[in-house]
Each structure stands twice: as C-alpha cells, then as structure tokens.
C-alpha cells in the first residue's frame, strides 16, 4: 500500500473515531439534558398552578380544586405528606393506585418514578404555607423525551455521515499535500543516484519536508562539487606525477643508452634526484591528506598557548623571510589558549605563511585575536593577491597559483583546521594582497 493510501486511511480512521466518540457522548448526554429541561418546565408549570391554588385552596372545596387540575391536561398528583396519601390525581384511580404502590411518594430525593415498564420524570412543588404538608407532583413519561432524543439522534447521524464524507475528502487532500512533495523528492533522489545533477529541481514544500528537500538539494550540489573536485584531483594528480616521472624516465634512458656526455649525465642525475624528491614530497602530502580525511585518530588535540605557537611559526619562517628581504610583523594576545594538535596546526600555519612569503612583495602580517568566543588568526601579505578564477578552488588539491609548488599546501591547511573544529577563508587584505583567516573555537566542543 502506498504511503498516501496509508496516511489517508489512518487520518480518516482517526477522524471517524473522534466523531464516533463525540456522537456517543452527545447521545448519552442528550437524554440527561432533556430530563433536566423537562423537570425545569414541570416546575415552572407547577409553580403557576400552585400560585393559583394557594389563592383558592381553603376558600373552595376539594372538588373545585380537582376541576382546576383536570382542566390542565397534565399528569399530576396532589399529595398530603402529613398523612402520606394522594388527595387528587388527573389519572384514573387504578393508575394512581398503581403509582402509589410502586413508588415511595414520601421520598423527596427521587426524581424518577416507575409504572409498569414506563419511567416518569417528576417535579414537586410545595403549597404555601409549608405546614400544610401539601405538594403538587407533576409527571412526564421518559418515552416522550426518548422520541425527542431519537429525532435528535437522526439529525446527529445525518451530520455524522456528512462529516465522515468530509473527513475522507479532507484526509485525502491533506495527505496528497503531504505526500506529493515526498514523491517529487523521491524522483530527485533517483536523479542523484544516476548522477543527473543538472536535472535536479528545487522542490517547493513547507515545514520539515521543506527542510529535508533543502538538505537534499544542498547535498546534491555538494556531491556534484565533490565529484567534480575528485575528477579534477585525479587529473591534476596524474599530471603532477606524470611530469617528473617522464623527466626521470627520459634522463634514465639517455644515460642508459649513452646519449649524454659525462657532464650531461651528471646533470641528468641531479635532475632525477630533484624530481624524485619532488615526487616524494607530493606523495607524502597526499598520504597526509588521506590520513586527515579518513583517520581522526591521527589528530591529537592538546591545549596550546597561541603566542608560543606563533613564535614557532616565526622561528621556522625567519630564514626564508631574510632570504627574500621582506618584513614579518606579528601581534598576538598572550592570554589566548587553543585546543588543537600542535604539530599539525603548526604545519597548517606554516603552509599558509610560506604561501604568503612566495607571493608577497615586502611584508607579511600575522594577527591573533579573540572575538565572540572565537579565536581568529589572520595572515596577510601585500602581493598580487588571489585571482577571481582561483579563489573558489584555492583550498582544493593541486590547485596552484603563480609560483605554487605542489598545490597541496593549502588543502592540507584546510583539512587540519577543519579537524580542529574551525574553518579557513581567503580574500583580499588591507595590504593589497591576499589574506587568509583561520577561525577556531575558544575551547574544544564550543
């Protein structure tokens, strides 16, 4: 059974159960309400009669009172509590006697009497003065009220049928509104499965379904970017590995075949060693990236003093700074504490700083500060900056700018920083070149 049919059946069943319970409660209460209303009406009628009889009783004889009661077309008794006897009744003597035998007239708390299989609603009104002990007792058969109840039930049942039909229509509409986006979402997931990313549509929905649809859409875009980056990665990786291998192969074959002279052969060996070292560096960085992506256990965070960490970066960068003749300025809040893997975060910062040294003209600035319970590390230079074409992919593997080396340094930096619970962004600096901003949590888990 399809989801829409299941939801329609469940929703319809729920509405029908609610309506059935409501009908049962109303049907059960209606008789009590009718009885209470009938007692109220009997009391009002009885009080009017008693007022009339109070004025005439004592001045008129009992026969005159009986005549007045008979004219009312009501079922009633005039009862004498003091002597526990019925003085007058609008019913026949036989029926009145049967009522008196089957019911306790002296019990003023009982509101319903029985006669044969019939039940009667009663209402008692006392004559004034109360010392007279006279009461007027009016009766109405419950069967008359049940006729009203049945009539009300018929109307309720008709409303129930109409309501049940409306419930089915409403449930169908609501479930269709709910299921239609899910059906569309299912088709979009099939497109993702078949990698038809260009055909994916953004589904219009509301509530939690909208959130799921948005997440699926974002997931598809991210998956497309990931697959594209993987394809680019393999293309770039093959190119980066193929070039030195071809160089090594060319020199090796030339030396083997005796094509090169002694000096040329020696130069070729130097080139081969250089290319082997380059290959080794690329492979080591690729292995490190793979470990960072797949082995969280290689990342061991500890508490670090930010000033001490930056000092280590400066110590390792000074030889390159002096060689190029540039100025390296840094400003760090001494109280800032980081929670990260010291060796790997140092590697990430060094990769960013060395990238800045290669591209700067005259100066590099490193600033570390805290804002809104986050720690920021900015590394800025006054070089040519990052081109608009490279900026979106600057942290992807084998993406190199001018004077770049392996194209893995910034990718490694991003992987390490993300493992630290932070993120890294690149943009334009106030110095005119590039600026990299590292955003880290103040403490682990925050």
Care to describe what's here?
The chain is α+β, with helices and mostly antiparallel strands. It folds into three domains: 3-149, Beta-Lactamase (2-Layer Sandwich), CATH 3.30.450; 207-294, Signal transduction histidine kinase, dimerisation/phosphotransfer (DHp) domain (Helix Hairpins); 299-441, Heat Shock Protein 90 (2-Layer Sandwich), CATH 3.30.565. It is built from nine helices and twelve strands. The chain has helices at residues 3-56, 62-70, 93-102, 142-193, 207-256, 262-294, 306-324, 342-359, 409-419, and strands spanning 75-80, 85-89, 112-115, 118-126, 134-141, 302-305, 327-332, 337-340, 363-371, 374-381, 423-428, 434-441. Helix 1 (3-56) packs antiparallel against helix 4, helix 7 (306-324) packs parallel to helix 8 (342-359) and helix 8 (342-359) runs antiparallel to helix 9 (409-419). It is a multi-pass membrane protein. One of its GO terms (molecular function) is phosphorelay sensor kinase activity.
List the helices and strands and how they pair.
Elements: H1 3-56, H2 62-70, E1 75-80, E2 85-89, H3 93-102, E3 112-115, E4 118-126, E5 134-141, H4 142-193, H5 207-256, H6 262-294, E6 302-305, H7 306-324, E7 327-332, E8 337-340, H8 342-359, E9 363-371, E10 374-381, H9 409-419, E11 423-428, E12 434-441
Parallel strand pairs: 7-9
Antiparallel strand pairs: 1-2, 1-5, 3-4, 4-5, 6-8, 9-10, 10-12, 11-12
Pfam families: HATPase_c, HisKA
Organism: Oceanobacillus arenosus
Domain Histidine kinase: 236-444
């Amino acid at each position: 059974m399809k989801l829409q049919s299941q939801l329609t059946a469940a929703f319809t069943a729920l509405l029908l159960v609610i309506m059935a319970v409501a009908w049962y409660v109303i049907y059960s209460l209606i008789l009590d309400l009718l009885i209470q209303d009938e007692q109220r009406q009997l009391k009002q009628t009885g009080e009017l009669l008693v007022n009339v009889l109070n004025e005439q009783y004592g001045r008129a004889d009992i026969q005159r009172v009986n005549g007045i009661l008979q004219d009312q077309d009501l079922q009633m008794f005039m009862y004498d509590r003091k002597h526990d006897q019925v003085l007058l009744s609008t019913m026949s003597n036989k029926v009145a006697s049967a009522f008196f035998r089957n019911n306790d007239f002296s019990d003023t708390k009982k509101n319903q009497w029985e006669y044969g299989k019939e039940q009667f609603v009663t209402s008692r009104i006392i004559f004034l003065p109360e010392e007279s002990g006279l009461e007027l007792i009016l009766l109405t058969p419950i069967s008359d009220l049940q006729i009203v109840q049945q009539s009300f039930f018929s109307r309720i049942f008709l409303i129930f049928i109409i309501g049940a039909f409306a419930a089915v229509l409403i449930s169908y509409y609501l479930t269709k509104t709910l299921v239609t986006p899910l059906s569309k979402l299912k088709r979009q997931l099939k497109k993702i499965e078949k990698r038809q990313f260009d055909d994916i549509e953004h589904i219009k929905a509301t509530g939690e379904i909208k959130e799921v649809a948005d997440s699926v859409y974002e997931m598809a875009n991210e998956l497309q970017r990931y697959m594209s980056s993987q394809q680019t990665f393999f293309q770039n990786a093959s190119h980066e590995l193929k070039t030195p291998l071809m160089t090594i192969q060319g020199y090796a074959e030339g030396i083997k075949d005796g094509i090169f002279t002694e000096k040329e052969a020696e130069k070729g060996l130097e080139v081969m060693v250089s290319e082997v070292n380059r290959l080794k560096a690329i492979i080591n960085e690729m292995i490190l990236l793979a470990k960072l992506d797949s082995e969280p256990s290689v990342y061991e965070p500890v508490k670090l003093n930010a000033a001490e960490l930056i000092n280590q970066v400066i110590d390792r960068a000074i030889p390159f700074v002096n060689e190029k003749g540039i100025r390296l300025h840094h400003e760090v809040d001494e109280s800032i504490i980081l929670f990260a893997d010291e060796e790997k975060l140092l590697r990430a910062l060094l990769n960013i700083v060395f990238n800045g040294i290669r591209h700067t003209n005259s100066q590099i600035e490193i600033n570390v500060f805290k804002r809104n319970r986050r720690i920021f590390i900015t590394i800025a230079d006054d070089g040519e900056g990052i081109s608009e074409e490279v900026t979106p992919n600057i942290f992807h593997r084998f993406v190199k700018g001018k004077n770049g080396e392996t194209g893995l340094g910034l990718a490694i930096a991003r992987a390490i920083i993300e493992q630290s619970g932070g993120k890294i962004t690149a943009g334009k600096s106030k110095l005119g070149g590039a600026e990299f901003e590292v955003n880290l949590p103040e403490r682990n888990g925050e």
